[in-house]
Amino acid sequence: MNGDGSGEESRMDEVIARGTAVPALGYGTWELEGDDCLRGVAAALELGYRHLDTAQVYGNEDLVGQALADSGVAREEVFLTTKVWNSRLEPERVRSTTEDSLRRLRTDYVDLLLIHWPVRMDILPQTLEAMRGLQERGLVRHVGVSNFTPAQLREALAHAEVFCNQVEYHPYLGQAALLEVCREQDVLLTAYSPLARGRVLEDPVLREIGEAHGKSAAQVTLRWLVQQPGVATIPKAASRRHIESNLAIFDFALSDAECARIAALERGERIVDPDWADWAA
Ligand code: NAP
Fold it and tell me: Which of 236, 243, 273 to mutate to test the pocket of ligand 1 (most atoms within 8 A of CB)?
């Protein structure tokens, strides 16, 4: 389909934000190191993933870049995201650290550059301005944020065309308030830790719904996420078997009743909750 999404029905395997189509299912790489990372990214690209998620703090940008370069997949076919770490959000640092990321990733640009955490709201306009400068130079296609609360996202939107807010989102942690802002402002919500870092796998409700479709609890969860308007997700899997099965979610659909049952599993369970996070902000 056209990158601008005009004149065509949106496809289930992609989500459109600000006129750009993004593969709804991406490959997360947190905690993937060494050969596991090389093999994982290579398998993901071979199996058909076209959306990769890394971050400076994961320490694997070089491996992601190597696997991408070796894959034979054209750079422009892949939606590549990285994130600026907390200690590098001063404007001057944003520029140099992003250039370092590009070198490690062996690419001229990233599709999406995110502020990893809202830890320097005091200089948010300046950080975003520096990111916009990188965008103007063609080093960054889109700028975005991660772990921003609805209020923080609104603040960021006052300074820049924020493309995405990447946050923890799975059946045990709802994001209703944030989704409302994202949909109103055409911001992509990318769901991280979509499998609740493995906790959804044995869930009896998800398993029961899966049985009706011949799918696993993990597949039901990922399907539930990408079936929601404006939502993409980036499960991490080291094993080829998991990488492959996580992609097999576009050949079935959940009913409204099934989606409602999954949404009812919400219990405010946040897994990624470092000391510096302030969810009331
Ligand atoms: P996750 O994707 O919810 O869960 C990963 C775990 O689930 C791994 O132990 C994996 O096992 C297992 N798994 C994956 N597919 C499976 C399947 N089909 N069946 C059974 N088990 C399966 O957790 P996550 O890594 O925290 O989140 C995903 C990505 O989101 C990260 O890698 C990162 O890119 C991003 N993220 C971003 C932030 C942020 O602050 N922006 C924070 C956290 C995560 P194996 O690896 O053994 O296959």
Answer: 236
Q: Tell me what percent of the residues of the chain surpass a pLDDT of 90.
A: 96
Q: Kindly state if the Cβ of 171 falls inside 6 Å of ligand 1.
A: no
Which two three-digit tokens encode residue 235?
């499960």
What residues form DSSP beta bridges with 233? Answer: 25, 191
Ligand 1 centroid – CA 12 distance (Å):
22
> If pLDDT is split at 50, 70 and 90, which confidence band does 9 have?
low
Distance (angstroms) between ligand 1 centre and the Cα of 51 equals: 15
The full DSSP string for 16-74 is EETTEEEESB-EE-TT--HHHHHHHHHHHHHHT--EEE--GGGT-HHHHHHHHHHH---
Instruction: Dump pLDDT digits (tens) for 46-99.
Output: 999 999 999 999 999 999 999 999 999 999 999 999 999 999 999 999 999 999
Atom of ligand 1 minimally distant from the CA of 53:
34
Q: 73: CA distance to ligand 1 center in Å?
A: 23
Q: Choose the residue to mutate in 195, 197, 243 for probing ligand 1, maximizing ligand atoms within 8 Å of C-beta.
A: 195
Which of the residues are catalytic?
58
pTM above 0.85, yes or no: yes
Distance in angstroms (rounded) separating the CA atoms of residues 234 and 53: 7
* Per-residue confidence band for 2, with pLDDT thresholds at 50, 70 and 90: very low
208 and 223 Cβ atoms separated by less than 8 Å: no
